[in-house]
Design goal:
The protein has one domain (about 5-440): TIM Barrel, CATH 3.20.20.80. It contains 16 helices and 13 strands. The strands form 3 sheets. Strands 5-4-3-2-1-11-10-7 form an 8-stranded parallel β-sheet. A 3-stranded mixed β-sheet has the order 6-8-9. Helix 3 (about 55-65) runs parallel beside helix 5 (about 85-100). By secondary structure, it is α/β, with parallel strands linked by helices. It is globular and about 60 Å long. A hairpin with a 5-residue loop joins strand 8 and strand 9 (about 305). Bound molecules: beta-D-fucopyranose. Beta-D-fucopyranose (FCB) binds near residues 11, 155, 289, 346 and 400.
Length: about 450
């Protein structure tokens, strides 16, 4: 697969721990709320990643990935000025990756925001795009000589809708929809400014984002069903923001889809043509987190109808349907709509993993899941869809947001008490797959 990026992904808040040496984060505050996080868990230690950095770098090298997606923690780097402790941690991380021949792919924002800025309104503030741009500039100046691939924002729908509308993510608000849409728009503007900053300060910069792709797949191979699946993938079937086109269309030069205006009308903030241009800075690929899909068929007059999965069809421990064909149709549809190469910035599953009597973790479901998804990506590639890389979610078992430590998504099992690591069977399966591909 040539230059294909064989990767694994993580995010700062979910793995780092070491709460003592960084500023307070939105999720620290949120975790203090009674009932906010499963079983009252918090991320004070998370996966003990800061404490075990060298060991983790060696594990990444043993896995044989060519790229590692991690995120900078804005609170660790400092809300407005650099915190030397944070800078030195990320220098050790990035230098450690480079020394092992692993390319860093850095996310600027994976939901952990400094409380200092949340108090001033976070992404509700008209100043938030400028705050984000100056944070991006600090990252670019410090690390732009060693990192060229950046992802600006991760799944903004989850942060914005989960945090400001549903109250199930930090900061835990339940705001009117007009406020939620304003924060969404500010987030997209923040992305646009950050891209400009990265382009200005990073030579040979490669920039994308990591929104979710909620793909639809066709119930049959008929052209009508495929067309219905394409249209459903980019539609807004409800007023929920966990839809792809709300984010992807403005990012990739199409502006907000018409359905945004018909559905939300005057609840949307004023959007000027200059803002539309700002948001749609040229990007190098369409990055998406791709977990699962809905199945649709063409109903009356071609309108898409959801076809329920059969009784007993496979589901992950999170109860998400297992839909590998999303990795064939999703990239195809993205390439068709936006004309750019595609990169899978996250894909994975939570499973019920434990250490067996023989001391190993036999996650046969993850081994199978991984292989099925890679095969579907290869099917799309074989038909000419340019796919740049695949990042499995995730490297280490970690703090799964409001679900605390209930869900294990890692290739590496973590004992959350001691931090001890045990690579799972899937770690070795992925390692062998990568080894075989990279030696071709
Ligand atoms: C994605 C998030 C990631 C993790 C996985 C399971 O939505 O980006 O942090 O929570 O889901």
């Amino acid at each position: 697969m040539g230059e294909f990026l064989w990767g694994v992904a993580s995010s700062s808040y979910q793995i780092e721990g070491d709460r003592a040496s960084r500023a307070e984060a939105n999720w620290d505050k949120f975790a203090e709320r009674k009932g906010a996080i499963f079983a009252g868990h918090d991320a004070l230690f998370a996966s003990h990643h800061v404490a075990r950095l060298e060991e983790d770098l060696d594990l990444l090298a043993a896995l044989g990935v060519s790229a590692y997606r991690f995120s900078f923690s804005w609170p660790r780097l400092g809300a407005r000025v650099d915190d030397p402790r944070g800078v030195s941690f990320y220098e050790r991380l990035v230098d450690g990756l480079l020394a092992r021949g692993i390319e860093p792919v850095a996310t600027l924002f994976h939901w952990d925001a400094p409380v200092e800025l949340e108090r001033l309104g976070g992404f509700l503030s008209p100043e938030s795009p400028a705050w984000f741009a100056s944070y991006a500039e600090r990252v670019a100046r410090r690390f732009g000589d060693r990192i060229r691939r950046f992802l600006t924002i991760n799944e903004p729908h989850a942060y914005i809708e989960g945090g400001l509308r549903d109250g199930r993510h930090a900061p835990g608000h339940r705001l009117p929809l007009s406020q939620v849409l304003l924060a969404a728009h500010n987030t997209l503007k923040a992305h646009g400014l950050a891209v400009q900053v990265l382009r200005a300060h990073v030579s040979q910069s490669w920039v994308s984002a990591a929104p979710v792709l909620l793909a639809a797949t066709p119930a049959s191979p008929s052209p009508e069903d495929v067309e219905a699946a394409y249209r459903f993938t980019f539609s807004l079937p409800t007023d929920r923001l966990r839809v792809s086109a709300f984010w992807l269309d403005p990012l990739y030069g199409r502006g907000y889809p018409d359905e945004v205006w018909t559905r939300f009308g005057s609840l949307m903030p004023k959007v000027s043509p200059e803002e539309v241009d700002l948001i749609s800075q040229p990007l190098d690929a369409v990055g998406v987190n791709l977990y699962d899909a809905v199945r649709v068929r063409a109903g009356a007059e071609g309108a898409a109808e959801i076809v329920p999965f059969g009784v007993g069809s496979p589901r992950t421990s999170f109860d998400w349907p297992v839909t590998p064909e999303a990795h064939y149709f999703g990239p195809k549809f993205l390439h068709q709509r936006y004309g750019l190469p595609v990169i899978i910035t996250e894909n994975g599953l939570s499973a019920s993993d434990w250490i067996a009597l023989d001391g190993r973790v036999h996650d046969a479901d993850r081994v199978d899941f991984l292989e099925r998804h890679l095969q579907e990506l290869e099917r799309a590639q074989a038909e000419g869809v340019p796919i740049l890389g695949y990042f499995h979610w995730t490297f280490l078992d970690n703090f799964e947001w409001n679900h605390g430590y209930k869900h294990r998504f890692g290739l590496v099992y973590v004992d959350f008490g001691t931090g001890a690591r045990t690579p799972k069977d899937s770690f070795f399966a992925y390692r062998d797959r990568i080894r075989a591909e990279r030696s071709k």
